[in-house]
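Technical annex, item 7. During the second reporting period the consortium partners agreed on a shared format for inverse folding records so that results from different sites could be compared directly. Each record opens with the tokenized structure and is followed by the designed sequence. A conforming record, contributed by the partner at site C, is shown below for reference.
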């Protein structure tokens, strides 16, 4: 009890940190619950991984299934690194979706927000290495430096890091700067804070920089942000169910809304 009180006092002695915490608390607990009118829309559209990828990309389902049958060993091995299974790591569905999209779209440049231990980053970089092309820029906050999460992206093998640039800091500040630096990207993947405000901001920040034929990917579609953004872009999102309550969303820069 005393140690918790001391940590709290130290926390609020740092005004910037306290202000950030307060803003995020309001966003998560007050604003986001007011923007959850279209959860049934996502539920009604949910598809298995292969069907969702085929719908979003227009690629034949048999080709998608062939790719998914060749997932890298580190995603399917029974004795996985403990960092692969911590609760905030990418699910098997998100990892499989990401792998297939990178193999199919062969991105030259991809940006992701949210790294954690680095399951998605490892998956993306592995697929890029197989493609023989591609560069990934990742954005995440510093880790809490725990035993299971000693460093941001610690799972990413050294032999793949030549394709990787990691920027540490808040996406609200870094994402616009990264996108302007790159000019155009092929895929954007959101997996940072899943609040309405943060998701909508990241979607709308990234969308203009995604090339025609590219893709926006979002983990944890749990509020109206993807619906609102897709409606504004005149697009139909593809929704993929996963082994947790909130699904994955894919929005193609090519396919426009069907009705």
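Designed sequence (site C submission):
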């Amino acid at each position: 009890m005393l140690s918790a009180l001391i940590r709290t006092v130290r926390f609020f002695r740092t005004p910037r940190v306290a202000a950030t915490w307060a803003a995020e608390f309001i966003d998560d607990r007050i604003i986001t619950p007011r923007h959850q009118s279209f959860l049934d829309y996502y539920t009604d559209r949910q598809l298995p991984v292969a069907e969702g990828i085929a719908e979003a990309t227009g690629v034949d389902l048999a080709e998608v299934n062939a790719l998914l049958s060749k997932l890298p060993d580190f995603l399917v091995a029974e004795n996985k690194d403990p960092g692969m299974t911590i609760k905030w790591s990418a699910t098997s569905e998100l990892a499989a979706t990401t792998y297939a999209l990178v193999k199919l779209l062969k991105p030259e440049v991809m940006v992701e927000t949210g790294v954690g231990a680095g399951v998605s980053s490892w998956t993306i970089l592995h697929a890029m290495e197989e493609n023989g092309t591609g560069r990934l820029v990742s954005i995440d906050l510093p880790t809490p430096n725990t035993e299971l999460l000693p460093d941001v992206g610690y799972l990413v093998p050294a032999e793949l890091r030549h394709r990787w640039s990691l920027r540490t800091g808040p996406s609200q500040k870094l994402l616009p700067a990264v996108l302007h630096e790159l000019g155009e990207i092929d895929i954007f993947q959101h997996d940072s804070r899943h609040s309405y405000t943060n998701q909508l901001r990241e979607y709308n920040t990234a969308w203009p920089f995604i090339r025609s034929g590219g893709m926006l990917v979002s983990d944890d579609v749990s509020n109206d942000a993807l619906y609102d953004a897709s409606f504004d872009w005149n697009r139909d999102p593809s929704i993929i169910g996963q082994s947790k309550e909130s699904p994955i969303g894919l929005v193609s820069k090519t396919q426009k809304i069907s009705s």
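The longest strand covers residues 210-218. Strands lie at 46-47, 109-113, 135-140, 164-168, 185-190, 210-218, 238-242, 244-252. All partners now use this format for quarterly exchanges.
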